[in-house]
Amino acid sequence: MNGVELFLLGRTLMKIGEEAMPSPRDGRRGGTRAVLIVLSDIVVHPDSAVGEIAERTGLPQSQVSTAVARLRETGSVVAAPDPGDRRRSLVRVADEPSERVAEVRATTIDAALAAALGGDEHVGEVTAALETLARRLSPGSVAQLRSG
Description:
The protein is mainly alpha-helical and 148 residues long. The protein contains eight helices and two strands; from the N terminus they run H-H-H-H-E-E-H-H-H-H. Strand 1 and strand 2 (85-93) form a beta hairpin.
């Protein structure tokens, strides 16, 4: 496998993941990718300002602000004033998982994976491989690549 093949596989996996997500109750489907990118950054870097998240993720600040607002609406993250600069807020994951987080975590990828694979035959095998990759490669792994 080369870098291009890995990149294309990553895009395919993102699309399968998006398909596996339960639809939000408010019916908004767009922006899922940005919300997940922002949330994964907040998990690795708690107490970050929107500008810092934008810088690390490469997303436009307006898109990060919108994603943070959606995450706050669902109770997934909380914001507090920055003690060093009260004009900005620092964002962190909420202490208690919201209903939406619990719903997303409880939803399996089986149906979306079966649809992508054209049937149920290899779902178990592919799920096991994905679980192995998830254990070995965390969102923090990318940060390690950049610093290493």
